[in-house]
Specification:
Shape: globular
Number of domains: 1
CATH topology: Lipocalin
Number of strands: 16
Largest sheet: 4 strands, antiparallel
CATH class: Mainly Beta
CATH architecture: Beta Barrel
Strand order of the largest sheet: 5-6-7-8
Number of helices: 1
Order of helices and strands: HEEEEEEEEEEEEEEEE
Radius of gyration: 18 Å
Helix content: under 10%
Length: 195
């Protein structure tokens, strides 16, 4: 537990990640100047928008509990200079549920983000945008993971895991690749294989 606390506290965010240096808030002509962008001590994993104007990041500043067995992360976003920090998906979006944002993928429009969220032990795919609109893209009963936006900005791909009893002797997990429109409509399976 202490190791986890130290790990996330150290990431009180001196941000220095691989990116296009011309679009970086750290750039000062030819010199790179580290700049602290957050100060809660519970922030980690930053994700640049493709246009370089925003940084999405995971934070546990509202969910951190030193007595809890794990750390649960919300999704926040800020301007590239650290200003206008605001939640995109947090504990208030699903009252009574325990949420943990697991993966974040920007779409090429730098406006939409697809995320994998563990919600009370369920794994779901959601789309959020910079105006804080949210759409659940998978049903509550599906174990969905690894979302990615298509370059055409109209579709996403993700996996859904199904566990079935095989010949009444053992359980087998099968992953199915799905494609849906960015608004969640026309979800269809493209292929499946044993995991």
């Amino acid at each position: 537990m202490m190791r986890q606390i130290i790990k996330y506290t150290i990431l009180a965010f001196i941000l220095f990640i691989g990116c296009d240096i011309d679009k970086s808030p750290l750039s000062n002509n030819d010199n790179v100047v580290p700049m602290q962008l957050t100060s809660s001590g519970h922030d980690c994993e930053s994700f640049w928008s493709p246009d370089g104007n925003h940084i999405a990041f995971l934070t546990s500043k509202n969910t951190f509990n030193p007595l809890a067995p794990g750390v649960f992360f919300e999704l926040w976003v800020m301007n590239k200079d650290g200003s206008n920090q605001r939640p995109l998906f947090n504990k208030d979006d699903l009252p009574g549920e325990t949420i943990h944002v697991k993966s974040v993928t920007w779409c090429l429009d730098s406006y939409n983000i697809v995320i994998e969220i563990n919600i009370s032990q369920r794994s779901e795919i959601w789309r959020v945008d910079l105006d804080n609109n949210k759409i659940r893209l998978t049903s509550i009963n599906e174990k969905a993971f690894h979302p990615i936006c298509a370059p055409n900005l109209t579709q996403i791909a993700f996996l859904i895991r199904v566990t079935t009893l095989f010949y009444n002797s053992y359980w087998i997990d099968t992953n199915f690749l799905y494609i849906s429109n960015l608004n969640g409509s026309e979800k269809k399976i493209t292929c499946g294989w044993p995991s």
